[in-house]
Amino acid sequence: MLSKRIIPCLDVRNKRVTKGVKFQNNVELGDPIEMAVAYSDGGCDELVFYDITASAERRPIDIEMVREIANVVHIPFAVGGGIEKLEDMRRVLLAGAEKISVNSLAVRNPRIIAEGAREFGSQCIVLGMDPVRVDDREKFPSGYEITTRGFRERTGMDALAWAKKAEDMGAGEIVVNSVDADGTREGFELNLTEMIAVNVGIPVVASGGAGTCQHLVDVFTEGKADAAIIASMIHTGQFTIRQIKDELITSGICIRQKW
User: Fold this and answer.
1) Residue 216's pLDDT is what?
2) 3-state class (DSSP) for residue 12
3) Quick one: average pLDDT of 105-114?
4) DSSP tally for the chain: helices H, then strands E
5) Going along 14-98, which residue ranges are E strands?
6) Range 83-122 burial, b when 16+ CB lie within 10 A, else e
7) Which of 88, 130, 158, 182 is catalytic?
8) In terms of Cα–Cα distance, which of 51, 57, 59 is closest to 14?
């Protein structure tokens, strides 16, 4: 059995880690470099760094911050936000990241997935998706519509159909970030995560809603996720990575132990 991964998420705006609820009312939480070091040393498996306003502001990613993070952590990390072309991907990888997350760009230009996979390998290309629950099951058979630009734009795309297409085009991993659960700390959207996980053959990372260790147990068992992104539950100091992993071990979840 493959070990489940715990991945802290650093949403960065103006060089500060920030967190909101359902993509709104963000508050500053700390320095991304200091937090990246703390989580890396604390036993997390990977990190993800999102320049959350880069796409909305139509600007490049903060490449200097990518380099700074690469210089101080010793675990894989993914980067998203402000990626517009292959050259941007190359710059991010050369700056030290292991993976590139594409979200809004992939919706606008799906070919970037295939181009990135051919150039750098599927293992480097992560599709980030922000689905929101909808009632129109005729138009959206999965019950979820893809949104972009930080939930600023609706796309008219069905979440499951988009996940399958991205896999076919070469994505090596999918991060499923539920807009409805984001920042609520009330649990992952298990139906959404499981639906994507059982219908694609690549790893699925659950995101949005983690608030307790039981939420992680649930998303690994019921939600069939391969990894889980966490933010508020550790950013606030309520839990440490070690506490979370100890609880997962007690619950019979296969995880990577680093102590």
Assistant:
1) 98
2) strand
3) 95
4) 10, 12
5) 16-21, 24-30, 47-51, 77-80
6) bbeeebbebbbebebbbbbbbbbbbeebebbbbbbeebeb
7) 130
8) 51
C-alpha 66/C-alpha 86 separation (Å) is 17
Token pair 């609820």 is at which residue? 21
- pLDDT tens digits for range 232-243: 899 889 999 999
Instruction: Name the token pair of 193.
Output: 């995560």
Q: Is 130 a residue of the active site?
A: yes
Q: Domains of the chain by range and CATH? A: 5-250 (3.20.20.70)
Give buried/exposed letters for 146-164 (b at 16+ CB in 10 A, else e).
bbbbbeeeebebbbbebbb
Which of these is catalytic: 11, 51, 88, 218? 11
11 counts as catalytic: yes
Question: Is the pTM for the entire model greater than 0.85?
Answer: yes
